[in-house]
Amino acid sequence: PGSVSAAFQEYLRHLGLQDFPCGLGSWNKSRLDGRRSSRVEPAGLGEAVPPGEETPETLLELLRDQHSPWALPPDCSPQHRLLREVAVLAPELLRGSRVFQAVKSLRILDKGVEEVDEGVLRFQQLEELILSANHISKVTSAHLPQTLKVLELCYNAVNDLQDLCARPPPELQHLGLGYNQLSGPSQEKHLTLDFWPNLVSLDLSFNSLTDLLGLVSQLSTLQNLRILVLQGNPLALIPTYRGFLVDSLPKLSILDDIHIGPEERQQFHGLARQPELIRSEGRVVVSVGEMKGIPDPTAFQQLKVGSEGPVITYSYCVTYEF
Predict the structure, then answer these.
(1) Please, are residues 172 and 145 in contact by the beta-carbon 8 Å criterion?
(2) Which of 56, 86, 126, 137 has a CA-to-CA distance to 213 between 20 and 30 Å?
(3) What contacts 24, CB < 8 A, 6 or more positions away?
């Protein structure tokens, strides 16, 4: 427990790829006897099977029928279903270490993972690694397959990018670091073309980044960057925040989940050449809507003239913490 490898083993146990109706067993043992050659070929649907064994069609139906005791919950990912069906049609492909070669997308969400361990390198075809909502504080790039194109680490405790940028996957196109503990200005130097030559999408939302000028100077080197999310950082409170970014990064298409149109780009044209407009201060407007659980003060103002009833006064204090 605590590592990606351990979480993956638990994931395999949950899927039951070697258990009925998947894998090889008494329900399809003749298929094992007929596959001793070095070349592995998936079983054909409709092929004849000996008495006492199940056809691939029957086994697949046990996986797909929502009323079957072997069916996965409706909210399971397509990868879950695909792996189980492969374990029926070609169980040899998922036996032993071969299972690591079959995985191109790995999603381990909210499983208490603390470490991206060296075992992740066994996934030699891995293109997408989603590790959101865990307890990861740092990621060693030497433990990441060089085939990765998507790395999602949102809702973790990452506070430094140095280890991640030592030897990052060169083909990475999306890096998700939202809702972590990154703070500037030391982190900006890791967000350049030297480390991420193919990065298209970057999520740094809801961290503690404050140096807008420093961050923009680094991000401007990312020639392929088209999607950027920075909302939730203190630097997003700067009045000229969006306009400065739009004008400074002309290739950007989406900022904070909002498309950048030609009109907006024209509106902020030239703002990038006026950094003096960026101030280290911001303004926050707070409006209080409906309040529940407190007495209605108007109910105590209906006393008759000359009434001797006690008058009760209520006062409230609202505190904002930033």
Answers:
(1) no
(2) 137
(3) 18, 31, 32, 91, 92, 95
Q: Does domain 103-277 have CATH number 3.80.10.10?
A: yes
Separation of alpha carbons 231 and 270, rounded Å: 23
**Do residues 235 and 261 lie in contact, with contact meaning Cβ atoms separated by under 8 Å?**
no
The structure's pTM equals 0.74
Phi, psi of 98 (to 5 degrees): -65, -25
Chunk the chain into consecutive blocks of 10 residues (it has 322) and report each block's average pLDDT, rounded to whole numbers: 87 78 79 53 58 82 85 76 78 74 89 95 95 96 97 97 94 97 86 96 96 94 97 92 96 97 95 81 76 72 66 76 72
Q: From the CB of residue 38, how many other CB atoms can be counted at a distance below 10 Å?
A: 5
- Cis, peptide link before residue 250, omega less than 30° from 0: no
Query: What is the β-pairing status of strands 254-255 and 258-259?
Result: antiparallel
| Residue ranges covered by each domain of the chain | 103-277
